[in-house]
Design a protein that fits this description.
Structural class: alpha/beta
Number of helices: 8
Number of strands: 9
Order of helices and strands: EHEEEHEEHEHEHHEHH
Radius of gyration: 19 Å
Bound molecules: guanosine-5'-monophosphate
Shape: globular
Largest sheet: 5 strands, parallel
Strand content: 15-25%
Distance between the termini: 22 Å
């Protein structure tokens, strides 16, 4: 039997570079990425089943009722959630799965899948976070202030994560996150099948 895959949630402040880190992880290594369901309309170029599973509000609420989601949250008037079946299937097949979701939902994943690993990505300093938001060149001062205020709120939840990884140099950060996830294969929660097998072997003697 293949060892179960490791489930990791990556979240962090807006501007921490989590989208870029996750994209690099998927390019360099063989991770599975969960595809979320949402009630927001597709943007130009987005495809159902690729970026998201696009659902009506009724369909989404039905998924909630039928416990088909690992977690869900409302964000700017729309529902976003992680379908359970696909994630569980990939983990059973031994694939490591990454969820990139905002903090509110992230902290709920543990209620459904206790062995999940929560990684929080952060820039090295608050000043650097502000610089990064500003250097995107696409946000107004008002949006930058809003995101900084939100980050100030969110930093109170860092303590609830298992691992804090600083994203200073991108490639170093990607390497660190990858090595961290690989090391998680040795946790006893990941080795339950193996432990059972060894115990059974001894029982047969
Ligand atoms: P967007 O509409 O820009 O694609 O996403 C808006 C926000 O929803 C982002 O912060 C994104 O990380 C978050 N998000 C995407 N999928 C999920 C999900 O399955 N669950 C939760 N809780 N948040 C999600």
């Amino acid at each position: 039997m293949a060892q179960k895959g490791v489930l990791t949630v990556i979240s962090g402040f807006s501007g921490a570079g989590k989208g870029t880190v996750v994209k690099r992880l998927l390019e360099k290594y063989d991770y599975g990425l969960s595809i979320s369901a949402t009630t927001r309309s597709p943007r130009a170029g987005e495809q159902d089943g690729r970026e998201y599973f696009f659902k009506s509000t009724e369909e989404f609420e039905q998924m909630i009722k039928e416990h088909q989601l690992i977690e869900y949250a409302q964000y700017v008037g729309n529902y976003y959630g992680t379908p359970k079946e696909y994630v569980v299937q990939q983990l059973e097949q031994g694939k490591d799965v990454i969820l990139e979701i905002e903090m509110q939902g992230a902290l709920h994943v543990r209620d459904i899948i206790p062995e999940v690993n929560l990684i929080f990505l952060t820039p090295p300093t608050v000043e650097e976070l502000e610089n990064r938001l500003r250097s995107r060149g696409t946000e107004t001062e008002e949006v930058i202030k809003e995101r900084m205020d939100r980050a100030k709120e969110e930093c109170r939840y860092m303590e609830q994560y298992d691992y804090i990884v600083v994203n200073d140099d991108l490639e170093t950060c990607v390497q660190n996150v990858h090595e961290l996830i690989q090391a998680l294969h040795y946790k006893k929660e990941q080795q339950e099948g193996f432990i059972r097998k060894i115990v059974q072997e001894f029982e047969k003697r």
